[in-house]
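Data card: per-record layout.
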Amino acid sequence: METKKVIGRRRFSMTITTLAFVFLYLPIVALIVLSFNSARQGVTWTGFTLKWYSELFRQADVWRAFLNTVIIALTSSLAATAIGTFSAMALYWYQSRLKGYLGILVYTPLIIPDILMGVSMLIFFVAVGVPLGLFTIFVAHVTFCVSYVTVTVMTRLEDFDYSVVEAARDLGAKTHEVFRKVIVPIIMPGIIAGFLLSLTLSIDDFVITFFVAGPGSTTLPLKIYSMIKFGVSPVINALSTLLLVGTMFISFFGSRFRKLIF
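The structure for this 262-residue chain is written out next.
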């Protein structure tokens, strides 16, 4: 009797899990499949085609949005990685009563709603007179990506054995040599994972970018939004599929590096 109950619970759990995966991934699968559908309207499958991807690559405004996305993602991720790495080391080794409060400030951008973050950044830029454009998007992305990098690197620092630093100093290593040859190699998996995470977040961000973008600074998420206002077309499906594949590719390598942390 007990065995039947256990089997019943397992079947129920498997059913719920299966339904959850279907709910999460069926829309994504449908999006990818419809991007190869020859029908311009509707969801009825009429044949396989690549013409929507060909049409997508011929649109100059899409390429401009792609270039803006790549530039902002790379530059903001590099800046956030540098700032976040030094912030993590400072918070980890800094001994003070303010350490707890500083930690709260680091975690705050992680829990603030994106729309609130976007509005606050917009108000700030307008108040200081900074014109909206690529620079404001860059600053906004660095602002919310720094926290993710800091948390990721601090996770790596939790397993840091400070005795190796003392050993290096006893052997005559200078401060910059200890940092470059001892500390950085040990926390490098956390740094790379933080960079890849920032890259993914920057590429996919829509809400914050929507508030701080200006003329000529359209990114791919904003481009998809502007296109979908006129109706869903296979070209949008193709663009969304490429964006999805790109972020999944980055996330895959990011997860591989994160496995080195835990």
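Known properties of this structure: The first helix runs from residue 2 to 34. The mean pLDDT is 83.

See the next section for split statistics.
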